[in-house]
Amino acid sequence: MSSQYEVLGKAPGAEDLKNLSSEDIHLTIKNLNAGYGKMEILHNFDLFVSKAQSLCLIGPNGAGKSTILHSIYGFTNIFSGKIEIDGKEITNLTPAEKLKSVGIAYILQDNSVFPDMTVEENLLMGGFIKDKTEESYQEAEKILDKYERLRNRRNQPAKVLSGGERRLLEISRALVMKPSVLLVDEPSIGLEPRYIDMVFEILGDLQKNEKKTIILVEQNAKKGLEFSDIGYVLVSGQTAIAGRGDDLLKNDDVGRLFLGG
């Protein structure tokens, strides 16, 4: 581990991390070693997050933040360890099974809307693995009722949307499957400040009012920690420091390394 991070002291253990969540732990990662091909990126990684709680992963490039989301969703090689939802092991389920049977949705960081399809068609794509198509229509209708920005453009191609509206559509499309866990990769990337605030307001509403569990990777560490209940600082595939989001914002080491302080 690079000497500049050793100031963070002793890394938190599983019990320390568990104490940051309530009794109602929804998603657990235990002693996970995972990566791509034969390359291991996460080393003995633990994570605990409760129902309707938000957790932000911050750290330098290459620390393994997105690999955590990929591992939860089923995009990595898992060498050992386990991932559980409400005590049920889901480590080796496919992404489609995770979305359909245990309610984990992944919102990608790159622009993943279909530009020539209408806003409504994009929403319906979120439910492509549902057995009953009418359920997708019902969920899409609820989303259009809730978000006027999308409702006003429901029959227009997605390419006419602003950056913020596209991000709203990406988040909304994931909601069609009624997930309990949202994995959000870089929600603020490439957005103007006013849209960044809008996106975090939407995520906050989903957490507080719809009881979604949110795990996000955010390059804008200050914004991510302000939003989240818990923060993990990752270094070289391990959690170097963890705490309540507010506490990490005040932490001198975190400030110096990641908040420009």
Overview of the structural elements:
This protein is an alpha/beta fold and 261 residues long. The protein has a single domain, classed as Rossmann fold (3-Layer(aba) Sandwich), CATH 3.40.50.300. The protein is 39% helix and 26% strand. The chain contains twelve helices and ten strands. The chain has helices at 3-6, 14-19, 65-73, 95-101, 119-125, 133-146, 148-151, 163-175, 193-209, 221-227, 245-250, 252-258; strands spanning 25-36, 39-50, 54-58, 77-85, 88-89, 104-107, 181-185, 213-217, 230-235, 238-244. The strands form two sheets. It has a six-stranded mixed beta sheet with strand order 6-7-8-3-9-10, with helices on both faces. Strands 2-1-4-5 form a four-stranded antiparallel beta sheet. α5 (119-125) packs parallel to α8 (163-175) and α8 (163-175) packs parallel to α9 (193-209). The model is unreliable at 1-8 (pLDDT under 50).
Supply the key terms.
261 residues, four-stranded antiparallel sheet, globular, 10 strands, Rossmann fold, single chain
Strand-helix topology:
Elements: H1 3-6, H2 14-19, E1 25-36, E2 39-50, E3 54-58, H3 65-73, E4 77-85, E5 88-89, H4 95-101, E6 104-107, H5 119-125, H6 133-146, H7 148-151, H8 163-175, E7 181-185, H9 193-209, E8 213-217, H10 221-227, E9 230-235, E10 238-244, H11 245-250, H12 252-258
Parallel strand pairs: 3-8, 3-9, 6-7, 7-8
Antiparallel strand pairs: 1-2, 1-4, 4-5, 9-10
Helix pairs in contact: 5-8, 8-9
